[in-house]
Amino acid sequence: MKTLLLITSLTLVSQTSFANISDIDAAANTMNISELTQYSQNSSNYEKAYANYRLAITANIIGQRVIAAQSLTQAQQTLETMLDQQTSADSQALLAAVYGMQIAVDNSKGMTLGMETTQLLQQATELEPNNPRVSLVKAINAFYTPGAFGGGLDKAQTLASQAITLYDLPCDTICWGHAEAYTWRGLAKQEQGNLSGAMQDWQAAMDIDPQYGWAKFLLNQQAAKQ
Questions:
Q1: Could you tell me which residues the TPR repeats occupy (predicted)?
Q2: What pTM value is reported for the model?
């Protein structure tokens, strides 16, 4: 009996440790903070950082600011260590996204992390100009950056559209963000008063991933207003 319990326990640990991007996305879609916490603790390298990034977003939404801050710090440390060992456009893009969220949580970090974010995205673009996640993070960055400082809603839409096109390319390993790109482009359209265009993009996000919780929330929010 003890042997069976040990084997079962090792199997569960193995399954948790090898959580892939799809597992993490599925947990994030349902805001399953318990699963995201497991993945963030038991995964390694990029998956660990990505799980912490999604955990931070989920925790921030539900008001768990301490967990969000801790998760962002963990993601940052993991990615910085990885980049010290090997340059990677995906790691640079995710670290830029982590820095961007840290700035959103604490504006005082904007002066230092803002420049590092820009530099990371420039390096990632030079390394892999056709990486859709790089374009997506650049779109998110542009959404929150005033036009006078190189951002703006038009630029956010252009970059999100670029990401959407690049997501049509084959992807084998790190493949997150397709539905998210449509969602951010829709948000930029909404900010510019193009609600019908925004809803079309959010529906496109749902067509890609029917379980994508954020686009579903935005569509339901608009439906409740009509």
A1: 179-212
A2: 0.89
